[in-house]
Design brief:
Blueprint (H helix, E strand, L loop, with lengths): L1 H7 L8 E5 L3 E2 L12 H13 L5 E6 L3 E6 L1 H9 L4 E6 L4 H11 L3
Parallel strand pairs: 2-4, 3-5
Antiparallel strand pairs: 1-5, 3-4
Helix pairs in contact: 2-3
Length: about 110
């Protein structure tokens, strides 16, 4: 999993990690995977509480100045529950097909 996560979140040329307000992030339209407050989520929250959000979310710009989450729904949920106002993101322009492939590829087995 770790290799897959790193591959999914690696920076391409001319990309950088920035912090964006959580209120400007939207879930991927018709996101098929549920984010649940289960044991793994509690472990993720504990990790974020101790170390911060280590892997940036992958987002794409959509109209109205907001961003759609491609990868990182669980990290956003955990950070939001911990009171974070901003999270690190990589903004990546991609079409719907590319976004769906990236989203499915980033989901944990």
């Amino acid at each position: 999993m770790a290799g897959k996560e790193n591959e999914s979140n690696r920076l391409f040329e001319n990309e950088k990690v920035i912090e964006i307000e959580i209120e400007r992030l939207r879930s991927f339209k018709d996101h098929p995977f549920k984010v649940t407050d289960d044991k793994e989520m509690h472990l993720l929250k504990d990790s974020i509480k101790q170390y911060g959000v280590l892997n940036p979310l992958i987002v794409r710009p959509v109209p109205d100045g907001v961003y759609e989450i491609i990868s990182g729904h669980r990290r956003k949920y955990a950070a939001q529950r911990l009171g974070y106002r901003k999270v690190p993101v990589i903004i990546r322009v991609m079409n719907d097909e590319e976004a769906i492939i990236k989203m499915v590829d980033s989901v944990r087995p």
